[in-house]
Amino acid sequence: MGKELAFKGKNIQLELRVDNARETFSFIDLACKNCASNGKDILIEYKSGAGSITKETIKKQFIERDLFTANSLEEIQWRLKNTTLTKDKLVGWLTDNKSSIEKLGYEKINKLFGKNFDDFTPSNELSQASIDYFANINNYNKIFK
Amino acid sequence: MKINSIIKGVPSSYKINDCTNYIYINSDDILKIYNNQGIIVKVDELNKPKATIISNCNTWIGNPILYRSTILNETLEPIKEVDYLASTWKAVDDFSTKNYIYATVYKKDSLKKIGKISKKDFDIEELYDFEIGFGSIYLVISDVFFISISINKIGLFNFENEAIWQHSYSDLLDEEDTKISTEIVEVSGVVYFLLHGGGKHECFGLNANTGEIVKRISNIVGDIIVENEFIYFLHSEIITIYNTQNDKIITWEIENLMIEKGIERLWFPRWAIDNGLIYFSQSKGADRNSDNVGARFGVLDPTKKELLWHDKLPLENGIIGSIKVNQNRIYLHTQDQTLFVYEKE
What we know:
The complex is a heterodimer. By secondary structure, chain A is an alpha+beta fold. Chain A contains 6 helices and 4 strands. Chain A is globular and about 40 Å long. By secondary structure, chain B is mainly beta. Helix content of chain B is about 5%, strand content about 50%. Chain B has 2 helices and 33 strands. In chain B, strands 18, 19, 20, 21 and 22 form a 5-stranded antiparallel β-sheet that branches. In chain B, strands 1-33-32-31 form a 4-stranded antiparallel β-sheet, with no helix packed on it. At the A-B interface, helix 1 and helix 4 of A face strand 6, strand 20 and strand 26 of B.
């Protein structure tokens, strides 16, 4: 068949994801072409410094942008350098932003977290499933490295 | 294409009745129904109603306080009341046969079950445990069998929960760490899906009855959508179309076309297929909080290998989360929970 895609780590290509001129606290945003194990792209967010991640960052960039955009958690990576983010901090900020998680909707939560929620699932179960997932350190470490 | 309507405050669970183009929106415990001109024709606030299943032009409106549902016909007249709530955790078509819907059913004072609901009279003919197969039904094949998947296996079960066949992904692909695609589809008695592992990306076709491998296609990536006998594999750079009837495969590298047309190489696209045309969105530059372009979207003709049309949404609406297409309409749902409805001029 046609073109061979650059699937293997050796051949990954990086390029600017977006014009990020309005962003002031991350130093660069990248996406990795065809780098996920399913041959799709990976969003990569680089964060550096103690004040680089706040509750608002988790709301706007992690929940409302990355979880909204990705179709699997494998398509999201945050690379951290000298930040103060921890699993417990993330869980706290996700809890503070429950309503943003709930707005993702049950279909997205099902896709990302392997659930079977439907129209009658209470909203707080949607957000709690997401929060519980990241309360597991192994899951947290898959994205926040 | 021209804008038909723009509706704000629409959660991603909105539904469309393909027979009428009416839109059903469950928002903050209020059900709003919009007609095909984007005008509200019904608002229901009593007992937190929710529109759930739409099938054969009928819509189930569930009342979770009373555990009852009213089925409305396409003119919104009630045609039956039933003593259950019904929904599905992904597309209704994945849980439907010609005569039945195998929905998640909630009855008062009972655990959720799978209900075999007649499309003719809306009665539940059988109830099954929700957790059957490897944990749940993924795709109903017939009124006897369904596909179930786990983290490492796919299998066919009957509704008595007996396994007919099963395969581990690792054994199929011969790679230790193997994952299955989100989409699993069935065409003419063959179950198709992608397996990814060890740098391999292969489409498998299994005889639904026996589990025998009847098709393997290497180097296939992307989201899977079926229309008639065609299976579309839709990736940011390459589109592959497999004709299951004549076994022909067409590939189309779209990256350069997208760059030439100013749309840029697609990042995290959403896709839909209608009448052989491919509808796509571009997420790059569309984040409402940090980007500066707006979500782009368009229509590709894979036969002519042309971009037929494209447009852009305002940046304030953000990334397009889903595309639905029917009857010459495009429905775009955005990051700020706005629904844009375009229609053919």
